[in-house]
Amino acid sequence: MKRLRALPIDVWFEPLIIAVIGIGYLLWYRASTFTATEQASLGWANLRTTIVEHVRLTVVATLIVVAVAIPLGIALTRPALRRLEPLAVNIANIGQAAPAVGLLVLFTFWLGTGFRTAVVGLVVYAILPILQNTIVGLRQVDQRTIEASRGIGFSGLRTLVQVELPLAVPVILNGVRTALVILVGTATLSTFIGATSLGTLITTGVTLFLPKLLISGAVLVGLLALIIDWLGRLVELAATPRGIS
C-alpha cells in the first residue's frame, strides 16, 4: 500500500478506468445481438487485423515524428540555429492547425491513397507537441547548471547528453505522450484515404446506420488511446532521473 501511495495517482488510477471500460464493453458485447455485417466486422479475425493495422499506423507515425522532432528541437536550441526557432514552430503549427481530414486528403493528391499517405499526414499533424516540448524542456534547464558542467571540462555535446537531455526528459516525454494520443485518435480518419484502421468500424456504422458497430469503434479507439497513454506514462516515469518530478 505504501508503494501504491508513493506512485503518482494516474499511474494506478488509469488502469482501473481501462479495466472498467474494457469489462463493461465485453459484457455489453456478449449481451448484444449483431447483424451479419456487425458480426463480420466485429469477429475476432477481422477485429484483430483492424486493431493491429491501427496500432501499426500509430507506431510508425510516432517513430518518424520522434526521429524528426526531437533532433530538430535540439538543433533549434543551439546558438547557431536559435533564430530559426519561431519559423520552425510556426511551420509545425500550420500542420497542427489544419483540419486532419483536409490534410490527409491533400496528401492523397501527391502520394495517392493508402498506408504511406496516412503516415505522412499523421507525422505532419503530430510533430508540433514533441517539437515544442523538446524546445521548452531544454530551455528550462538552469543556465548555471550548464555553465557548471562546462566549467568542469564537459564538451558541448557531453553537456547536452549528460546534463541537458536528462533534465528535459519529463517535458519531452510528455510531448511524446500527447502526440501518441493525438495520433491514435487521428488515425481513425485514415479510413477515408484507404488505410485500414478502427475508423473503418466508425464510418461503416455511420454509413449503414449500425449503432453497435459505431459504438464498438468509438470504445475501442478510446481504450487504445488510454492504454497507450498509460504505457507512455510508465516510460516517462522510468526514464525520468531520480529527484526530477
Automatic annotation (TrEMBL):
Protein's membrane topology: Multi-pass membrane protein
Pfam families from the UniProt entry: BPD_transp_1
Main location: membrane
Stretches assigned to the ABC transmembrane type-1 domain: 51-232
BP-aspect Gene Ontology terms: glycine betaine transport; transmembrane transport
Superkingdom, taxonomy of origin: Bacteria
Keyword Hydrolase: no
InterPro entries per the UniProt record, alphabetical: ABC_transp_perm/SBD, MetI-like, MetI-like_sf
Record localization: Cell membrane; Membrane
Alphabetical UniProt keywords: Membrane, Transmembrane, Transmembrane helix, Transport
Annotated TM spans: 12-31, 51-75, 87-112, 118-139, 179-201, 213-232
One Gene Ontology cellular component: plasma membrane
Family label: Belongs to the binding-protein-dependent transport system permease family.
Name assigned to this protein: ABC transporter permease
